[in-house]
Specification:
Layout lengths: L4 E3 L4 H8 L17 E6 L3 E7 L12 E9 L7 H14 L8 E6 L6 H5 L3 E5 L5 E5 L16
């Protein structure tokens, strides 16, 4: 990954970015990701969270893939949001996870159009119960780097 480093879901700077995101349900909480498998990424100006339910548990959207539960970028300097998204996709394979048949997923708030995700190759695949748009992208493992080895996991 070029722009991100993996951190825990309790990392203070990641939590601070999450507190300023429009989806934040409990600002000030010491962590911001749902239970399950998570990959939290932090850059100089953004936070990104991948989530997948624990094996054997079905997600509420009934799809089998990794869902971006948060992407919050501050400032206009640096890489484009779509570049950050594409770079964040590498984390799934780098950390040794498989993806699931429904690929990569994200919800877009009603007040947004999802341009940055669409520029990264995501397309509408449905809507959530609350009216948010659900975007998806096939996961093609051969496009991503091989898993990291040893203590870097």
């Amino acid at each position: 990954m070029k722009y991100w480093r993996r951190v825990k879901k309790t990392h203070p700077r990641a939590v601070a970015y999450a507190d300023r995101h429009y989806t934040r349900q409990t600002p000030g909480s010491p962590q911001f990701m749902p239970p399950g498998q998570t990959i939290v990424l932090l850059s100089e100006q953004a936070v990104f969270g991948w989530w997948r339910p624990k094996p054997g548990i079905e997600a509420m959207h009934h799809l089998d893939g990794w869902t971006c539960t948060i992407f919050h970028r501050e400032g206009k300097d640096g890489p484009l949001a779509s570049e950050l998204i594409l770079d964040a996709e590498d984390a799934i394979s780098l950390y040794g996870y498989d993806c699931g048949g429904d690929g990569l997923l994200t919800y877009i708030g009603k007040h947004l159009d999802g341009t940055c995700f669409q520029l990264a190759g995501y397309a509408p695949v449905g809507a959530a119960v609350d009216g948010k748009m659900l975007l998806g992208k096939p996961y093609r493992p051969w496009l991503y780097p091989p898993p990291l080895q040893g203590e870097l996991l």
